[in-house]
Amino acid sequence: MANLTLTASPALGGIELEIGQNRIAERSDLAIVSIATPLGGKDILAKTLNTGWSLTMPDPIMSTVEGNTRAIRTSPDQILLIFPHGTPDANATVQKKLNGTGYTTDQTDAWVILEISGPDTLKALERLCLLDTATFEIGQSARTMMEHMGALIIRLEDDRFMLMSASSSAGSFLHAVETSYNYVS
Amino acid sequence: MTQPNRLDGGQIDRTRKLKFSWNGTFYSGYHGDTLASALLANGQRLVGRSFKYHRPRGIFSAGSEEPNALVQLRTGAAQEPNTRATTIELFDGLKATSQNHRGSLEYDLMAANDLLSPFLSAGFYYKTFMWPKAFWEQFYEPVIRASAGLGRLSMEPDPDVYDHGYLHCDLLIIGAGPAGLTAALTAARAGLRVILADEDFTPGGRLNAETYAVDDQPGATWAAAVTAELQAMDNVRLMTRTTVYGAYDHGVYGALERKTDHLANANGKPRQVLWRLYTKRALLTAGSTERSIAFGNNDRPGVMLAGAVRTYVNRFGVAPGKKVAIFTNNDDGLRTADDLRAKGVDITRIIDARQGDNVVNTVGRKGLHTVYLNGGRHVEADCLAVSGGWSPNVHLTCHHRGRPVWNEQIAGFTPGKDLPPGMVVAGAANGAMTLAAAIRQAHEAAQSIAAGLGKTVRDTAPKASDETFDTAPFWHVAESKTRAWVDLQNDVTTKDIKQSHQEGFRSVEHLKRYTTLGMATDQGKTANILGLALMAEAQGKSIQDTGTTIFRPPYNPVAIGAFAGRARGKDFRPTRLTPSHRWAEENGADFVETGMWLRAQWFKQPGEKGWRDSVDREAAMVRKSVGICDVTTLGKIDIQGRDAAEFLNRIYANAFLKLPVGKVRYGLMLREDGICYDDGTTARLAENHFVMTTTTANAVTVFRNMEFARQCLWPDLDVHLISTTDAWAQFGVAGPNARALLSKVVDDLDLSNDAFPFMACTDCTVFGGTPARLFRISFSGELAYEVAVPARYGDAMIRALMEVGQEFDAVPYGTEALGVLRIEKGHAAGNELNGQTTAQMLGLGGMVSKKKDSIGSKLSERPALNGDDDMRLVGFKPVDKTIGLTAGAHFLSPGDPEDMAHDQGWMTSVAYSPELGHSIGLGYLKRGQDRLGEQIRSYSPVRGGNTMVEVCSPHHIDPEGHRQRG
Prior knowledge:
The complex is a heterodimer of chains A (185) and B (966).
Chain A (H helix, E strand, L loop, with lengths): L15 E4 L2 E5 L3 E7 L5 H12 L9 E4 L2 E7 L2 E7 L5 H9 L4 E4 L4 E7 L3 H6 L14 E6 L2 E9 L2 E7 L3 H15 L1
Antiparallel strand pairs in A: 1-2, 2-8, 3-6, 3-7, 4-5, 5-6, 8-11, 9-10, 10-11
Chain B lengths: L12 E10 L2 E7 L3 H7 L6 E2 L6 E2 L12 E4 L6 E5 L9 E4 L14 H4 L8 H4 L7 H13 L14 E13 L3 H12 L4 E4 L15 E2 L2 E2 H13 L4 E4 L2 E6 L4 E7 L13 E13 L3 E3 L12 E3 H10 L7 E6 L2 H12 L3 E7 L6 E5 L6 E4 L4 E3 L2 E5 L2 E3 L12 E3 L4 E3 L8 E3 L9 H18 L32 E3 L4 E2 H9 L5 H8 L12 H12 L3 H4 L13 H5 L11 E2 L3 H6 L2 E6 L2 E7 L7 H14 L2 E4 L4 E6 L3 H8 L12 E7 L5 E11 L2 E6 L4 H15 L6 E4 L4 E7 L3 H5 L18 E6 L3 E6 L8 E7 L3 H12 L5 E2 L2 H11 L45 E8 L11 E3 L12 E9 L4 E9 L8 E5 L6 E7 L9 H4 L1
Parallel strand pairs in B: 1-7, 8-9, 8-15, 9-12, 15-27, 17-23, 18-19, 18-23, 30-32, 33-43
Antiparallel strand pairs in B: 1-2, 3-4, 5-6, 5-7, 10-11, 13-14, 14-15, 16-24, 20-21, 21-22, 25-26, 28-29, 31-32, 33-39, 34-37, 34-38, 35-36, 36-37, 39-42, 40-41, 41-42, 44-47, 44-49, 45-48, 46-47, 48-49
């Protein structure tokens, strides 16, 4: 056995950018685990979500949040659970509480998460996202396309959003977001 | 730098003087000027040359309908031809030049064309340049190409940036004239989210150009006050410099906002933004456009639309001439006289066609100086204000193929019944040609729209008076003996229209193509109705019966750069990178695009002269010791559920139900029609948990098809899918030393052949605790594994693997060596799965299970796909080993003619095999399985190969599979 250990590298190296009064930051501290509802297991999963995380099952296009944990509804039988977690065992952590009431897949490494905020955020999103983000409720989420890349968008506050896209194209995604801010601020 | 034609008043800021250059001479203007108003203020009447005859031309209008005053703006790479001087906002340092002349603007050598005009009438190019035939490419075409067009491109890449954007509203109001402003105020007060767009930089429309009063204030003052009120409202977005150019499906409108065109320096910001507007309703208040009258030599500099003359006088404080004559067929034209007199401009004559007076000719080589009337009279004038009536701007109402309706009362087309869904039209665009009527109509429309969207407002329409409006259709002066222009931009005269009719091009669409009437940047905004009327007259039909061409987007020209937006160069599409990308860059990788992925195709080492050196070395080292290849790009799909095995059993042609936990199986997917479309491996990690691998190219297609099957075909199955392609960094480790290398990587796992045999899989950890997955699968035919770690460890993993691999002289290998290895082994890839391939052709017919139903299995049994004469995948090697094989070559029996009747198959893949020391190939050959050892011709008429090859097993190396199982 070689005396080597592996060090994690976030997709964008944990980048933080300031453009005018706006901020773009990679959230590499968050883990993402998808939870699929077993056929006929909707109620049990909702209950487990409540007992395990005090979360209610989010309605379509919405997310629910409790403490640091957020559940985002991504399809009729799937949610993403997002929570701060540093080690590559998020799946096991979630399954411990779920105890088999949902099918889980660790999605942490599949996505890059950007948190964007600042006074020009809505204007920047006008250049990036074809949805009417100005009317999003706090916590509202949507799957959409941004500059030809699949994306998830969640409104956290009036001028703070979380954007998620594929980790392999994280560089292109960051470029798209950064360009949007540069063009409007 | 004096401005000899500048008057008092106007909406210009005289405290902000601006310097600009025109054809290299510096002039001054004021903030609030357009280039056109500034040129006129400086006495510049001649601004360009006409398209065909190179006639001197001046400024004709004051808006985007301008047919004449097309100029080249800016210099160097940023030079833009064919911009309309009437829409260019003046800025300090603006540089513009005239276009379409050889020599100076004043002395254009091409003006000789005007003398040849009898030979250059409509459609002349269809009738000439016929002989001699050889002259066409050598002479005619180059000459015509050199003469065509107006301005010149810089031939350099556009240095400006452009962007796209998306906006949403309850109500889009198109045009911020009196009607648009009124409607916006009412709708906004009702609480609607309103976008008010106008192509001008100052809202107000004709209110800025006329001396009307609204709510007892000067119209321009009222417009400014309403604009200020709207700007202060959160629910209103006022978009000036924005042209709504198209009405599309589902309430979507296209708009172009000119962001920095009015600035000397854009500072890196987009010059223009192309907006997609999502609307619940749209109100078209685009006003109307004045048209001309066709009379002799009506194209001279100084001949100008009467409404434009009022615009220059009232809005810009500029007199288009010192002595102005007016030629009109309506009351609106007479207003010009009042406005000019009020500014002290000399009116030399009012010529009212309704009273039998006509202009028959004009004189003045580079600018008008005399106007000749019927009856032999003449009058001196350096400006002739012409008004032939106003045409409602109905263009956007026709973008869903709606047809406008002729309205005799206003002598113009008004919107028909088939409007784009959600669109309402009000004001002059709807035929309400007087101010109070337009305002009243817009107010009512806005109230009605608000009510329809569940909002109410109790406000009253602004007060205004209806000016007199009396028009008598009058299109051309029959007594004119000289040429009379209909379309100034395309040099179309009344004679051309008549000729088109005489030669049988009578439909309006034919008229347009034959004469070019209504083409180019202005799309005939000032000319179309005149042309139609003349054609109607020639045919003895009404204008309604003659019809109109269909209006299509864009309403005004849109730069191609704006359509492209940011998608230029490397930003044309996103790029996907594997976690080892940075390491690969550091180690001499040459990358290839595979869809959006960038994959290392080989790693160049010092001393290697070409790609073959690198690829041969990499492939040889895999066979000799061990190589490492990033295979992250292969699609990975996580499949879970109580019925996951049953689901896979229906998806794959071969059996999966009984795949044991801890095992991987090769799987073949068929389309509904029984043709193979993807292959890969699927590992069973737990009873209800599988991980599928797809080809890189088909990852999305396979996922989509499986999701469709899950949701729509078998919703009763408990199965769930999610892509994990990006979640795992996966590396192929192949070669005789693969096990030895991995035993130094994987924690506490017995990798012996007994404990972890071919096609085994497991969860494990590597390098002291990092979670990983290990699969014993082989694409190269060697002892091989694929090891996956969470993507965040991908960079560290490749570095650690290479460090550990030093002991074994491990090499990284790219997609080219991967290709060589798989061809040597005889594995099918994209070249072989070309959408026509059956399992039987691949030699995998036996894999299609007859004991179960799966997608495509039934149709794969069709007799046509299972004949004795079918193609079969076999291997090929050159008889002369020094010769390279050619992919795409076709197989022929020796002596057979080279035609499709004797075609026996084709070569799908070739490679030089370092292992065998010669070129090898794979391909499909009729009855190939029965022809091993036969020599045939490999013939490529495209690439020039004509080689004798020997048919052999597709498994060029280790056909028994000892290496991969060892």
